[in-house]
User: What shape does this take?
Amino acid sequence: MPTPAQPVQHKPSGFLLFPWSLTAIVLILILTAFLHDWIGSNWNWVAFLLIIPAAIFENIKIGYTSIRVMFLKIFYSLLSFMVVGFTAGLSFSAWHYEKTFPALEKIIDMPWYIWLAVVIVLLIELAHIFSLLKALKRELVQFE
Assistant: This one.
């Protein structure tokens, strides 16, 4: 039993440690790769069911000031940017090869609305990174 002088240490829940935005980005890319025809007609539902909950769940993490949650949030955000960068590179190279060698079949076909959805998630991630860095600065100044 902790005494009044000792703070109670609580572990953050799995909900706070789970990478919601990274999962939304990966699911959007996987659904686009394997169910391209279905995504073409139902992209608004994909945005509604993946982007909006990811943004809401990531906003909940902003108020939590555990260093572990902040570190994992920034790590997963940077990982999200890396995944999108790889996908953008693959899409650009596929577009270039299609223009250069028209006989080749296009392997990756990312429509504009999928890029819009992914860019929106990345902009949310970028805003969260700056908010978390501001909170981290506030925590570090408090320790001085």
